[in-house]
Amino acid sequence: RRDLEDSVTTADHLAVRATELRQALRLAVVELERLDAEIAATERTATEARTRLTASEAELQAARDAKAQAQIELARVQARLDVLRAQEVALSGEQSAATERMQRLAKELLEISESRAQIERQLNAARAELARRQELLAAAEERLAAAETAAGAADARLTDAERVLDSARQRAMEQANELHQAELQRSEVASKLAAIRERLEAEWHRRLEDLLAAYQPVDLDEETLRAEAASLREQVDALGAVNPLAVEEHEEEQRNLEFLTAQRQDLYEAVQSLQQAIREIDSTAREMFLETFGRVRDNFRHIFLTLFGGGECDLRLERPDEPLECDIEIHASPRGKRTQRIHLLSSGERALVALSLLFGIFLTKPSPFCLLDEVDAPLDDANIGRFVRMLNEFKRKTQFIVITHNPRTTTDAADAVYGVTMQEPGVSSVVSVRMRGPALDTVADDGGSVERTVAVRPVPDDAVASPL
User: Fold this and answer.
1) Which of 393, 295, 315, 304 is nearest to 350 (CA)?
2) Which one of 96, 188, 249, 362 has the largest count of C-beta atoms within 10 Å of its C-beta?
3) What sign does the dihedral 149-155-160-161 (CA atoms) show?
C-alpha cells in the first residue's frame, strides 16, 4: 500500500509536471512563431538595407572615380602652375641680375675714368723722376767704373792669397794624415804587445816582468828555437785541455750505456714477440680465410647450379700463395657456354651470378636482413621464378627488403608491399598491403574488435618510389 501510495503521489506529481511542460511547450511554440515573424521582418529589412547599401556603394564608387579624376586634373594644373611660377622666379632673378650688372658696369666705368686721370698724373710725376734718376745713374756709372778697377786689383791680390792658403791647407792635411797613420800604427803595436803579454802570461802562468827578469840567453839560433817551440806547441795541442771530471763523466756514460743496452734488449725482445704474434695472426687469418673461402666457393657453386639449372662456376685466388693480399676472380659458364669471366656475360647472367655469390655468402654466414635494389630488372620470367624460389628459401632466416617494379616478385615472394602513389596531381600517399598473415588495420566496434580488409588500388610501376 505504501508503494502504491508513493506511486500514486509520483503519478500526480508527474501529471502536474506534464501539465506544466505542456503549458511551457505552448508558450515556447508561441514565442517561436513570434521569433520567426521577427526574423522574417528582420530579413526583409536586411534585404532592403543591402539593396540601399549596394546603391550607395555604386554612388560612392562613382564619387570616388570623379574625385580621382578631379585630383588628377588638379595635379596636372598644379604642375603647370608650378612650372610657370618657376619660370617667373627665374625671369625675375635674371632681370635683377641684369640690373645689378648694369649698375656695376656704370660704377666700374666711373672708377676707370678716375683711375685714368690719376694714372696720367702719376705718369707725369714718373717722367720727372725718371729724368732725375738718369742723371744720378750717369754719376753712379762713373763711380762704378772706378770701383770695378779697384775691385780687379783686389781680386788679383785675393787670388794670390787663396793660392797660398790652399798650399798651406794641403800641407796641413798631409801632416794630419801622417799623424793619423802614426797613431794607428802605435795602437796596432800596443794591441800586439798586449796580446803577446796575455799569451805569454797564459802559457807560462807568470807575469811578463818576472819572465824577463828570469831570462837567460841560450846559445842557439832563433830558427832552431822557433822549430822546437812549434813542435812543443803541437804536442800540447794534441793532448788537449785537462778535464778533471773525466772519471765521473766516464762512469756516467758507462751507466747510460748499460741502461741503453738494457732498453735495446727489451725492444729487441718486444719486436721478436710482435713479429711472432703477427706470424700467428697471419697464419690464423690465412687458415680462417681459406676455410671460409672454400665454404663460400662450394655454396656459390651449389646456388649457381640451382639458379642456372646447370653450367660451371668457380672462385679463384689471383695469387694462391698470398691469399690475404690478392684479388678474387669470379669465373662463370652458364649451361651451353664456355667458361669466361663475369664481365663478359649478359646483364641478366651477371645479376644471377651476383645473387649466387650473395646467397652463397649467406649460407656461410647468415645475415639478419638484406636490401636488394632492382636486382630482378634484367631477369626474364624463368629466371624471375628461380629468384623468387630462392628468396622463399632464404627468408626463413633473413628478412629481405626488395625494391622492384616486377609484380611477379611482389606477388609470389612478398609478405607485405609498400608503395607510393599519386592519385591526385602533386599529392603523394603511401600505400601498404599485407600479402600474407593478419590484416594490417583493425577497427573497434561497440560489439568488440572487428577485422577490416584493406582495399588497395593497383600502383603503377612508375609511381613506386621506395618500399619504406
Assistant:
1) 304
2) 362
3) positive
C-alpha cell at 81: 602652375
Which residue type sits at 382? Answer: A
Q: Report pLDDT digits (tens) over 22-59.
A: 888 888 888 888 888 888 888 888 888 888 888 888 88
> How many C-beta neighbours within 10 Å does residue 350 have?
16
Count of Cβ atoms closer than 10 Å to residue 351 Cβ = 20
Closest C-alpha among 372, 467, 462 to residue 418 = 467
Residue 376 to residue 347: CA distance in whole angstroms: 10
DSSP SS3 for 345: coil
Predicted structure pTM score: 0.39
> 324 Cβ partners below 8 Å, 6+ apart?
282, 285, 286, 289
In sequence order, the 6+-apart residues with CB closer than 8 A to the CB of 422 are 428, 429, 463
Dist CA 285 CA 435 (whole Å)? 45
User: For 427-451, what is each residue's pLDDT tens digit?
Assistant: 888 888 887 655 444 333 333 333 3
Q: Determine which helix (DSSP H) or strand (DSSP E) holds 309, and give its type and residue range.
A: none
Q: By C-alpha distance, which of 371, 351, 352 is closest to 467?
A: 371
Q: Assign residue 168 a region: left if phi > 0, alpha if psi is -120 to 50, beta otherwise?
A: alpha
Cβ contacts of 107 within 8 Å, gap of 6 or more:
none
Task: Write out the E strands in 229-317.
Answer: 312-317
Q: CA nearest 356: which of 318, 323, 394, 324?
A: 394
Cell numbers that stand for 31 in this block = 514565442
As beta bridge partners, residue 431 has 419
Residues in the chain: 468
Distance CA(19)–CA(9), nearest Å, equals: 15
State the Cα–Cα distance between residues 90 and 82, nearest whole angstrom. Answer: 12
Query: Minimal CA–CA distance to 356: which of 415, 414, 310, 303?
Result: 303
CA atoms of 162 and 223, how far apart (whole Å): 59
Q: How far is CA 280 from CA 93, 292, 319, 323, in A?
A: 111, 18, 21, 15
Q: Which residues contact 360 (CB under 8 A, 6 or more apart)?
A: 296, 297, 299, 300, 301, 302, 303
